[in-house]
Amino acid sequence: MSDEFVERTGPQLAPPQPIRNGSGATVLGPRNPPREAENPNLLVPPRTDHGSMPNLRWSFADSRMRLEEGGWARQTTVRELPIATEIAGVNMRLKKGAVRELHFHKEGEWAYMLKGRARISAVDRGRKTFLDDVSEGDLWFFPSGVPHSIQGLGPDGCEFLLVFDNGTFDENETFLLTDWLAHIPKDVLAKNFGVPESAFANIPAHELYIFLMQGPGPVGNLTLDLSGGEGPVSPWFSYRLHSQEPIRTKGGTVRIVDSSNFQASKSIAAALVEVEPGAMRELHWHANAAEWQYYISGQARMTVFASSGNAATFDYMAGDVGYVPRMMPHYVENTGKTTLRFLETFRSDHFEDLSLRRWLSLTPHDLVRGHLRIDESVLAGIPPQKSPVIPL
After folding, report:
1. Which uninterrupted H or E stretch holds 34?
2. Which of 283, 382, 271, 260 is nearest to 329 (CA)?
3. What is the dihedral of CA 219, 224, 228, 229, to 10 degrees?
4. What is the distance between the alpha carbons of residues 108 and 162, in angstroms, rounded to a whole number?
5. Cα gap 304→326, rounded to integer Å
6. What are phi and psi of 122, to 5 degrees?
7. Using a CB cutoff of 8 Å and minimum separation of 24, what contacts does 195-201 make?
8. Mind listing the pLDDT tens digit for each residue in 227-265?
9. What is the per-residue pLDDT for 218?
10. How confident is the model at residue 15 (pLDDT cuts 50, 70, 90)?
11. Residue 199 has what pLDDT?
12. H, E, C per residue of 193-254
């Protein structure tokens, strides 16, 4: 939130007005003050914002919930956030024992566990098997076409974020086991499995999607379920992100994960960023892919520069999605009083960013001074080591 906005709103006794230093005017017509309060930098943009920019924010709170007996799901795709053409996301909740049924996608599926525990299973194209229990902060990746399932564990199940490597993905158009077999004649099923047709008398007449089952036992008790395959998958489909030593700065931490350390994840790279109050993710850009963000906790503002004099500032809070088209410079600042935590994800096999500070520090300083008319002390003071999060 800009200082100008804070100065004008005071104790918040009345809704803020779109006025800045004599520019603008009061709102006389209908208003939505709660929504305006979520986006103060749209109501009163900073002086540096200019031109026309697409919307770069969507809240999962505005996505339609699909409610099932075992939990729920909601999604953010190009239908909700049209600019986000490279990546789509699904937020899903499973009760204890509930199963996201056996299925597969045309897209690769990357996931971050938000809360609770889950059991995930898969069989890859080479008849190799995968089974693991994951908890908060863990990741998984299932390649395109690999069948898999997810089941909630523990006293209250789990909640997780799914990221897909195609912005047009639709969670309601996945290939589900029950939906598939419901549309195959029973005599064909009997012939396929070499059993009487009566064996399939009770299969569901429609998809189950998310349904309740009895909770599974420990992984160690499931060795019989894995018999007959060609051994465990390699590379492994899950990753303990929070076990990774982060890049630490005075302003926060960054954990980077891509195919270099999570070999299974060939189409999604990511960074888990933590920013302390007042600190910011430095001014930077990405040349290899657009950035799809998910805000886990805290609040933030981000200004994106689109060239040609166009720039816009957006505000974010937990549960929001942000998007930055490829090449567009931006920063993310913690505007709250608690640690800001968010994910940066990219449709790429590797993480890559380019830093404004690094660019200017490694360019002949007389050339930079000629452009910006700044003192040499500014350039000389840039630390030589990478510092993706800058303190207050």
Report:
1. helix 33-38
2. 283
3. 0
4. 10
5. 11
6. -165, 160
7. none
8. 567 889 999 999 999 999 999 999 999 999 999 999 999
9. 58
10. confident
11. 97
12. HCCCHHHHCCCCCCCCCEEECCCCCCHHHCHHHHCCCCCECCCCCEEEHHHCCCEEECCEEE
pLDDT the model gives residue 269: 98
Active site residues: 344
Q: Which of 358, 326, 339 is CA-nearest to residue 273?
A: 339
Per the CB < 8 A criterion, the answer to whether 302 and 313 are in contact is yes
Mean per-residue pLDDT, 138-159? 96
Phi/psi at 189 (5° precision): -60, -45
pLDDT of the residue at 6? 47
Q: From 258, 299, 302, 309, select the one nearest 277 (Cα to Cα).
A: 299
The type of residue at 35 is R
pTM of the model: 0.93
Rounded Cα–Cα distance for residues 277 and 337 (Å): 5
Whole-number Cα distances in Å, 5 to 2, 38, 42, 46, 247: 5, 13, 11, 9, 33
Q: Tokens standing for 32?
A: 């939505």
Q: Are 382 and 357 in contact (CB under 8 A)?
A: yes
Q: How many CB atoms lie within 10 A of CB 67?
A: 12
Least confident interval from 36-40, 65-69, 101-105:
36-40
What pLDDT, in 10s, does the model give residues 285-308?
999 999 999 999 999 999 999 999
Query: How much of the chain is in helix, strand and coil states, percent to nearest 5?
Result: 20, 40, 45
Tokens of 360: 């200017």
- 312-371 per-position pLDDT tens digit: 999 999 999 999 999 999 999 999 999 999 999 999 999 999 999 999 999 999 999 999
Task: Report the SS3 class of residue 187.
Answer: helix
Q: What are phi and psi of 8, to 5 degrees?
A: -80, -30
CA angle 294, 392, 272 (to 5 degrees): 25
| pLDDT-derived band at 225, boundaries 50, 70, 90 | low
CA-closest candidate to residue 267, choices 161, 142, 123: 142
Contact yes or no for 4/301 (Cβ under 8 A): no
The three-class DSSP label of residue 304 is strand
Between CA 120 and CA 266 the distance in angstroms is: 19
Pairwise CA distance, residues 312 & 47, whole Å: 10
